[in-house]
Amino acid sequence: MLKLLRPAVTRVLTPLGRALARWGISPNVVTTVGTLGTVASALFFYPRGHLFWGTVVITVFVLADLLDGVLARMTGTDGSTWGAFLDSTLDRLGDAAIFSGLIFYFVLRDDLLLAALALFCLVAGALVSYAKARAEGLGMSADVGLAERPERLVVILVATGLSGLGVPYILPAGLWLLAAASAVTVCQRLHHVYRQAVTR
């Protein structure tokens, strides 16, 4: 679903991409600013309990993940090795900040179960990404699974934002769903790589 929505979002962001290209702003600057904004917002708003507005601000910065791709195509730097490496690395930092902010939020409210669950989601999400990167480094693929990064971000941001609006049980439900989906995705990728490895 998210892959189908990406072209529509890209069309919306194209005018902004053109403006940034005219101003000489590089895609790597957009990537870096988006990540720094995500990190600062998550660690400022979430521990203080401002879940809705924190999510709104984070979502604005997360859109930079799409905007940098639009800008890269316009400036002729699409496919840059450094840009791809920077984008993937900073994605991990942004994800870690979102879950770290939630962990602080739960710890400050003495909800250690949900803090542990958010920590599990953080680790499992990192494993999902690492499994793919390591497989590709070994000449195999691991582009499979139930919950890739866009899906994980949508689940956690929607659940957190609705929780900030007072929807009961939505954040715990979102975390449990995300934990299960991430664990399944790790297993799917391990199985996929195993099948490739034993048939070589």
UniProtKB/TrEMBL annotation:
Family: Belongs to the CDP-alcohol phosphatidyltransferase class-I family.
Known catalytic reactions: 1,2-di-(9Z-octadecenoyl)-sn-glycero-3-cytidine-5'-diphosphate + 1D-myo-inositol 3-phosphate = 1,2-di-(9Z-octadecenoyl)-sn-glycero-3-phospho-(1D-myo-inositol-3-phosphate) + CMP + H(+); a CDP-1,2-diacyl-sn-glycerol + 1D-myo-inositol 3-phosphate = a 1,2-diacyl-sn-glycero-3-phospho-(1D-myo-inositol-3-phosphate) + CMP + H(+)
Manner of cofactor binding, per the entry note: Contains a di-nuclear catalytic Mg(2+) center.
Cellular component aspect of the GO annotation: endomembrane system; plasma membrane
Pathway info: Phospholipid metabolism; phosphatidylinositol phosphate biosynthesis
Binding-site positions, Mg(2+) 1: D65, D68, D87
Organism classification: Bacteria, Bacillati, Actinomycetota, Actinomycetes, Streptosporangiales
UniProt subunit comment: Homodimer.
Protein name: Phosphatidylinositol phosphate synthase
Enzyme Commission number(s) from the entry: 2.7.8.-
Keyword entries, A-Z: Cell membrane, Lipid biosynthesis, Lipid metabolism, Magnesium, Membrane, Metal-binding, Phospholipid biosynthesis, Phospholipid metabolism, Transferase, Transmembrane, Transmembrane helix
The organism of origin for this protein: Sinosporangium album
Transmembrane segments: 20-45, 51-71, 114-133, 153-179
